[in-house]
Structure prediction request, 148 residues.
Amino acid sequence: MLTRRCTLILAGAALAVPALADAAQPEVFAEGGAAINGYDPVAYFELKGPVKGTSEFSLSWNGATWHFASAANRDLFEADPEAHAPQYGGYCAYAVSRGYTASTDPDAWSVHDGKLYLNYNRLVRALWSRDIPGNIANGDANWPGVLK
Prediction:
């Protein structure tokens, strides 16, 4: 018999399964027009958590518009976007490790070895956290092929 916690985790993982799409997905998750739901990717490193960005401090990179909470964060990103951008284009890292893409929740995040990873929700992040190195190895092998 499944515990309530296991049932919730499995339900969260099931929600992460995307609908089949005919076209390739963009390289950066930008639902609603802004990368990573309009959150500032630099804030995860500098402020240790998610902070909503603003269009006042934005820039285009890698085919998407990125929002930042300050001009300083925008400038840090612009100087070295690869150091601050989330892995796998901001798609759910756990989903990519399993061979598909899913949207992300800015509150379901982790920084591992200096890189930002986002997940579908906190329950999926718990699954991701069980084997971060293995999930990264799988995700790296699957990326960017999962976009096709």
